[in-house]
Structures
1.
Amino acid sequence: MQKTWIGLLLLPMFFWQLANAQKGCVIRMQGEVRSTAGTPLTDVVIRLDSDRATTTDRLGHFVFNKMCAGSYQVAASHLGYHGKELSLSLSKDTTLVFELLPDAIHLQDVEIIGQQQGSLSSSVHRLSAQELQESRGKTLAESLTAISGVSTIGMGNSIVKPVINGLHSNRILIMNNGIRQEGQQWGVEHAPEIDPFLADRLEVVKGAQGVRYGADALGGVVLVLPKTIDTSKPFSGELDLHGRSNGRGGVVNGAFEGGIDKIPQLGWRLQASAKKLGDYETPHYVVGNTGVEELNYSAALDYKRDKNSFALFYSHFGTTLGIFTGAHIGTVADIEARIQNGRPFETYDFTYKIGAPRQKVSHDLAKATWKYKFNADRSLDVQYAYQRNHRREYDVRRVESDDLPMADMVLSTQSLDVVLKEGNSSIGIQSLAQINNNTPGTGTTPIIPNFDSYSLGLFAIHQFHIGRLHAEAGGRYDFKYLDVAGYRYRRDAVNEDGSIQQYLLTATRRFHNASGTVGVLYHFSPQWSLKSNIGLAWRAPSANELYSDGVHHGSATYELGDQNLRSEKGLKWMSSLIRSSSRMQFTADVYAQLLYDYIYAQPNPDSVRQTIRGTFPLFVYQQHDALFYGVDLRFSYQLWKDFQYDINASLLRARNLSQHTYLPYIPADRLQHGISWKMFGQDQQHSYLKVAHRFVAKQSRYEPNSDYASPPPAYHLIDLVAAKQFQLNEAHQLNLLLSVDNVFNTEYKDYMDRLRYFTHQMGRNINLKISYHF
């Protein structure tokens, strides 16, 4: 394995040496493409006669090497802009500059078609530069809540995962640098193992995206996209230092990148971040054992030569997370008393120590990609990735050491994707192989068994463009094979010592299904556009939904699966009305999704499970048809020259159609809005003052007596942000940001928090963020 990696690392050097062995044509033609406003344009197609083409990088730069003297036709084209063409007589190294005039009628298409992010008719939302700056240092899920229709579910303030239009976990795909993130994402308290500092762009694609991204994309897709490596400088980068009052800790991050003069097509990047936080505090008490320790790092190499592009990427994510001690309870009477009290009986002192119960998770990802451009309209992408997710969950033990995990799971995933793109069409094949092993010696029965899983998918997508109307259609077929083996409890028989007998469970399941999508995008005018998309997606039940029968130590719950569960199938329609002008941005997403055989964990307040480890709330997996529908609004308006008002609102309804009841754990209606003052004028977009208000309503649409505690009351929170950007010189920049979350230290609970039975959410939190770019 080591020799293989050494060989991959040396591969770009081999191609460079091979290219330099060719003598003759040595002229270099480079250039820059920008808009008439001076903004560098990324992914502009530069055609050289008819047989050579390239695209611009993040800075708008392009280059052609080893050219011969002679006459050429050079053309620059980019969706959303008028193209340009010129004749050139080449006799020496030459630098060109293209300035493209915006073509307003297509500006709404640029983000999707120009960057080939996927469906042109789906609702795509990206964090703005200001939102991305404010979210630095937060978890991935917390960062995404700035997008309407996105909320969180989890345990307390340390362990959260994204929710899109009411769906989460295995119904949301997270694409980490083009790779499906594959961990133990089935758990509500299993946060995505991704360092947000890797991302230059964070995007959410709403709607059923099963055709392009595969099974499990029922609710949508989260895209974590790193920036293109800047090879124009030998060394550049950024340093980030973030401190926060609640938790009395912070985050440090460093990223460095550059090019090599002797190998101009080779780019490199190194990045690392670390986080340390102690117990978080509500307005009136410390929540014991809720600290966080994190260490992450990554490396990347990019190499381009003529029609070939190679990329290597590796990242490591490692975290230790404390779980509130008061959620692990000894008796039935104790759990009832704590839920009734709504806050801990104990008083905790602040500490950085993370004891049991806790999680220790590491995730390693390595990928290699090769892209070959036959010409400007046809390319072949090949991508291989390996992931290793190691999850250990610790609980308080009565006899053994607390350093011995109660659950020790290693999930290994290999994937291979091959996609051929030609013009407006794409066809591809995607394969995935997974092996989950429970490490023996924990002294407990694993909540999920060992399993092997194999998947294969074939898809095709075509886009049509007729004037102001754009349309697309796609189809896909997936097959999945699951083979499990593990010990389960036999509840109708006990051993002589009173313990429950176990038996060896072995089973195989096969799942297959077709997916499809049809959508349109129509421009009424340069300002008004309409998108409408209907998609069919599906997912097979996960191993925990089928076979769990035991204490989930990470969430302090007892989970019981159902071996007879069928695949979920979802049909989602979404339409988006978009208004874009110099002063106003408006998007309204209206959607409805019918989920056949929807799988969910229903809390059972009539029963708890007592084990040798304590007493735990019981959650039982069920399956019924369900309907989700709602609306997401996003509105931004420039009130005066330097004042801007922004508002996001989300309303969601969900029903169990089989039983004519409400579904549990559905986000309540929410609103967040704020006013920003660019105190130094529009030329300093990152220098501003902002006051924001967050409102979350009480979830009134739930079934009485169906949960251990009724949904908490509505709450209002006020946040403040002050940011200032200092341009030290042409290449060096310093950003300062001071923010206060929950200014008035409001005590509240959130319905989507599994710890709401026992404790409140975080109180006031003061953040200081310093970022230095060079």
2.
Amino acid sequence: MKFYTRIFLYSLLLTFAGRTMAQESVKQYLSGKGKDDGILWDFKVSEGMKAGEWTTIPVPSNWELQGFGKYNYGFNKEADKGKEIGSYRHRFTVDRRWKDKQVNLVFEGVMTDAQVKVNGKLVGTPHQGAFYTFSYDISKFLQWGKENLLEVEVAKHSANKSVNAAEREGDFWVFGGIFRPVFLEILPKNHIERLSVDAKADGSLRMKLHTKGTADAVAVQLYDAEGKAFGKPIHQAVQGAETWVEGTFEKPALWSAEFPNLYKAEVILSQKGKEQHRIHQQVGFRTIEVRQRDGVYINGQKIKFKGVNRHSFHPESGRTTSKALSVHDVLLMKEMNMNAVRMAHYPPDSHFLDVCDSLGLYVMNELGGWHGHYDTPTGTKLLKEMIRVSENNPSIIFWANGNEGGHNPELDATFFEQDIQKRPLIYPWAVYGGFETTHYREYNYGIGTYDHGHNIVMPTEFLHGMYDGGHGAGIEDYWKAMWANPLSAGGFLWDFQDQGIKRTDKGGILDTDGNRGADGIVGPHYEREGSFYTIKEVWSPIFFEKREMTAAFNGEFTIENRYAFTNTANCSFSYELSKLEGTSASSKTGTMASPNIAPYAKGILKVDLPADWHSYDALYIKANDSNGKEIFTWSFPISLPSRIAATKLKTAGDKVEAQETADAFLVQAGGIHYRFDKTTGLLEEVKNGKGLIPFGKGPVLQEAVNNYKSFSMRRLADTLIIESAFDKKESYNTLQWTIYPSGQLKMHVQYFPESYFTRFVGVNFDLPEKEIEGVEYMGMGPYRVWKNRIKGNRFGIWEKAYNDVATGEVPFEYPEFKGYHANMYWATFKLKSQSFRVFTDREDVFLRLYTPKEQQDTDWKNMEPTFPSGDISFMNGISAIGTKTQKPETTGPMGMKHVYYDFEKEPIRALHMQLYFDFSGQ
């Protein structure tokens, strides 16, 4: 019998025989698996909180979060800070049946230097580097069937300067401790030591096996998601310590972020027909191709990455996370319509990568480095450790060699030597390998450079969030440019989550170290900021062209399919027509036929509306992806402000009574008393039957000259009009009040902005903040907006209780009350004493509610969140907000100031603000 025939028969026997012969790896955890199930070990820390006393600590954990040692932010480099030593002790037993096996002691992550002893003896060289899985063969140190003592001494500050430069001097919190799981790995003497997989979109499969001991054959069988065998088994003779296995599978279901199809490979090592070792490995078939001066292709399709940077983080556990947390984070990213994530700035927990595999996110995995980098011997060791545990995750599309100058080019060759897939290597914040990844380019400079450059454009950090700036503010302009540029491969926002850490030394407060850690789209406990929904809309893979709901609307929307692999026929669409107000509030719902639109193509989405659709106030279109998850819900106002205002305007009543004094116009109508300043025309006082309403001192023009002059009073039919005179030189801004017999008040202001360029324009009123309890309004909500962050809200009626929260600060409550709110139709101001309503018949009016508290900006003062004077404003134009690294005007056209023409001060060129006031309290 020929040798290969014997191998084939032995392999068949192994593949189809009972599982009783299985020699699988066994894990015995000595710690918990994450932040919620830690196992208590004995512990002592040398400095800081609880220094010098033996007690217990859960493992895994960061010791600061358990009330030990000192807290340190990365920029804190003083010599006496963050140099605690943590001493751990743990007792465990090992089964006598393992005596003939290899027992590895595995640490998935220790901050930062770890010296390990078993039963009083050093088991190997101390490990340096926090974010990497390392192990020791401790078989010869064990007492079989007896209690064993594990001792670990952990130095928070590394003895290796390059490790500190790469890991501990960056712009993020730094911690100490055994922060990832610890376990025993029990292996047969003859076993697979390492398995490297390369599965391509054409169905070709290569595996590189490193084996230890003796074996003569290996068999590989793939199984699909239902557990059914996929393709024929592969049989291969073992070729010493390193064996290549190759095979081809016909039409595999490919892996991508949209369709994360996975197979399970069962790999069986044998010797003379006897199974030696069996392992299982997830496999995703996909091909990565970088076409220079073109783009990044996955499975032959060009990809634009919609990504975010993510730290391994939780406010109560620091860098110690869990599988459940990984699932939560990936689902939240995908809810924002992201398709990519970059690891910042070190490798994550393995379970995070596994979740990216199974749920579908493209990953850039990063070797530690932040301006500083590892020396070559240390970096080589840590790089091998990183690749070894993550090389088979199909979600990993790129490797990154450090961050922002923390690159060691001497390690480049090791990336390609270790990774059989030869994935592309990125230098974040640099031009390297055909990629332009420079961070935080100003829109004009960056887009200009990108448009006229030759490299693939993929900024690994752009729009540096801080508080409410960045992220959603500016992303629409950037994404329009990125989408239109064939050389753009998208980019990654900074960053996912506010790094607000629980301070056990300060009564449990959440600390972002001032403005350094307040960079997230979501808060420390995933509180959603307004930018969350802006990103969700801007990055929606279904893009709606602008469409107005006019009488001629035929139910057709032009949409663009921005998926790379999904036909819109695989999505689902539904609609809702809504009447928003009063006893007539009602809705009609229905589904829509999903159009057949290929990826990156345009087409028509048709909604068959009932004949009376125009009688409703709003149309909502919801799109769900192929898994039934919401992509976004778009709102299209049907009723214009003029139609809604007509339902609120009440004119009938008794005669309007008026009196003119030396300094005022006094008017009474419908039980409402008004006092207008005779010189300025401003509303000075308003009262109803319940008493004084603390609203008035307006309208004061913002960014325009308050030159209302020469007021007079006249009657028109049953109304009373108080108005200023127009003069092209002296009083070109005009104010007119109309008082109806019902007591309602109409204000019309015609004005010219003072400057050609202006941050905002509108009119202001006083309403003391201490009097307000809340507001209900019709418009876009519930989140506030900026000039460069309009998208993400929904048209409707919103009720907001007063709060004084600031984005990115305790108590992390959203939506914020203060700020600009878009497309106001009406607003009811709920005061401690009573309520009143303001409404308008004009489109595109912004409601401004007070001024948010000033937050600690950087020395550059880039955010510049500017607001009008006064308390309450009704605006024709609002201001933008900057980011941590850019002023508003450098984030794109939407961030620039408004431009208004004021030639000759002709009324036809003026801006108009028309409001109606109902002070009846009804």
3.
Amino acid sequence: MRVHARGRLLASVAATSALIGMLACPAAAQTAEPGAAEQTSTDEPAQDIIVTGIRASLAQAIDRKRSADQVVDVITADDIGKLPDDNIAESIQRVTGVQITRDEGEGRGVNIRGLTAQTTINGRVQVGANSRNFDFRNLAAEFFQTIEVFKSPLASQPEGALGGTVNLVTRKPLDGKPVVSIGVEGLYADYAEKLDPRVSFFASDQFADDTLGVALSGAYQRRHVRSDYFQALSGWRRDTLSVNTGFDFNPGDTAQNRDVIRPADLRYRTQDGERTRYGVDGTIQWRPSDRFEVRFDGTYTRFENVFRNAWFRTLSNNPGSFVPGSLVISDQGSLLGGVFTNQRVEIDGRYESEPLNLYTFGGNARWEAGRLTVTADANYAKSDFKLISQFLRFEGVQPATVDFRFTGEDVPPTLALTNANGSPYDLFSPALYVPNLAQDRVFDGASEEIAGRLDFDYRVESGILQSIKAGVRLTTRDDTFRVGQTANQTGNRANPAFYDQATGRRLTIADAPLNTFNAPYPWRLFEDEGGTFPRGWLIHRYPADDPDVGSTAYLDAFNIRDFGGLINSVPEQSDIKEDTQAAYVMADFSGDIGSLPFRANAGVRYVRTEITSRGLFNNNGVVTPVEGSNVDERWLPAANITFNLRQDLLLRIAAARVLQRPAQASLATGYNINLSSGVASLGNPQLDPFLAKQVDVSLEWYPTRETLFSFAAFYKDVENFTAARTFTGPIPGVTQLDGDTDFVITQPVNAGGGKIKGFEVGVQLPLTFLPEAVRGFGVIANYTYSDSSTTSGQPIGGLSKQSANLIGYFERGGFSTRVAYSWRSRFAETGEGGNQALPLNIFEYIAPAGYLDASISYDFSPNFSLVLDGVNLLRTKQVRFTGIEERLRDLSITDRRISFGGRIRF
């Protein structure tokens, strides 16, 4: 049996085992003691009910939600390192109304009801590297006990997002018993065919008569990743052909009825690499009395991406060189096939390294003096990355005839390459390829924020007024971004790496030094998928064990910095400083309206933000500093009220005005230029922040301590949405690597507003009504519908109209299993290389997709357990299309992941 076949078998066994566990284990567990007592009456609160495992986590989460002063959903871990998923973003996606983005199959970004979420750790705002969007790949799930998803704000909470706030809560050493926990797992990726380690620990102890607590945790994980791709990397674009196509996508063009929307290129590639994540988290907590407490905590994590790409591409030039009668044009004007002559063929091997670092440190002090509580908090947060991208591209010495067809399925288009005489095009012969481009690019980005806040809470307890709260918060944030690129287009005959100095002959891959880096591509592309296209080719491959890969060895081997190399040819840099002053006042209320009990809060937050943006502009080789600034002041009211319709039935109503600042890339001055794809972006520091008026209504029924039925409706009226204005034209002093001077340039502008309205339905239900012999099952299900519209006509990026989660679990006698399926409908998102069809108001979308995960665990004792997890068991494909599904832009498939291990606690 082949290795990859064993990987698929292992994944299938894991998925089947989880499902069998759901169905068969009740019979096996009939003689086991129940894992929890049941609550069957809602007349009296059942404070003495004890539950464990999955049901304990759900009960704790429901209790937190029920007692909250705002619309919130909560995820809790009943034990160390036992959040529902290894990746925090993947845990959060189970929450009603939450949608996530993925990178190589792993959760990366989070939005709430289609809009960006702000991320905090212990209430402190975290920064993404040169981004508002926090990268959840950078955090180990073992560090956190609770995840809170706030959908309606309090006036006392930091502003910063339209969607809501995700707060990650670490464990506090004085809130639990001393403990040491160690977990060890092996993670198998079936597509990469690799087994990797995952290790974590947590230790907590108390001293000085239990007034001083210390906690320390650490985590290490390595993961091999393999993904296969088809891409129209440069996007789909309008072209005018020399035949009557029956379509005219540009009425202002004089060439009537000759237009098509066609792929600008066809690229097939594979990517394999390693992801390493490690970090530490620590807390010191001192509580000499109930009235005074000091806490210091900090987190450092590092997430390292190292990837090696191999690809070939064609159909990138001479769109008019087609064989008459061969074109396949759909009813929507899409060029879905044809035979094109005189086409370039390029092959490439690429090395990319991207370490991401996260540092966050803070101190908090709370002091109670009678009715007054004073809290002071200060923190420092920093996130940075450095992306190195190096490649050596080759092109065939002979052009090819390209015959392609898009099939309409989620498989790559069929592709056949032939020579002019009709013989097969050889993708493996080193003597048939000459160097085309050698390039080294380095991207540096960093964001850091220093914040301090002071809060006062005075308990009034007079009538319905319970307390008055006020506070101030000062922050300063700095975002920097740099691009350095060194390129050599291999056209200088004086370079001995590309030309024989004695004869003047241009070297091929068969010649030294070019031959030292190249080998046939070792795998079959999309090996388990259908379709007819090249499955392998010659690549420029970086040795995995070369310690100099990613450093000067590559540059020196091909004299990239000499012989006409373009060193920092288009210097790009951005420096954005953001200073914010905020203050709030808020009151808490409690009482009765007639016979109806209620609790409420209302307040207003004042925010002043000053932004200074600096960058560079390149005009005919003369680099000039440019600068822009903006000052914005806003008042943000917020109110929440909760009615106890019955002891087990709550009605919440919330209203607020919320604010989100534009993305750093949107505020940058100067250009961000991709010389290879011909795409550029231009920032706009004069952008106004996004603002939204929002209303939430939530009805929550708690028939038992572990059961919840909820329905929520929401409405957001958004101002100042950012829309992309795209145009084609030159950038003074800048030329693409292929000599073209026209770029597709995108610039953000404020373009009116939009509205989002929808509803959520959720249920958490242990099936305690089942007969004793099969008791232990439970179900969690939720569905979210979000309808949106914008005055600009552009879709809201990242917003799916529909999303749903269905989770079934079984728990009894120390055995537990869980199967979770998450699905979302299509959402707008532009891929790598930009969207060349955007000037025609044609947008790009990620196709609907669902992900299946499962887990099985068994507790041999309170101190030892084993677990088997499966992630992405369906090996779900990610599909991106331009406008309509027949215009396939990206197709990728990545690993199914299986992990097995144990945890010991003492």
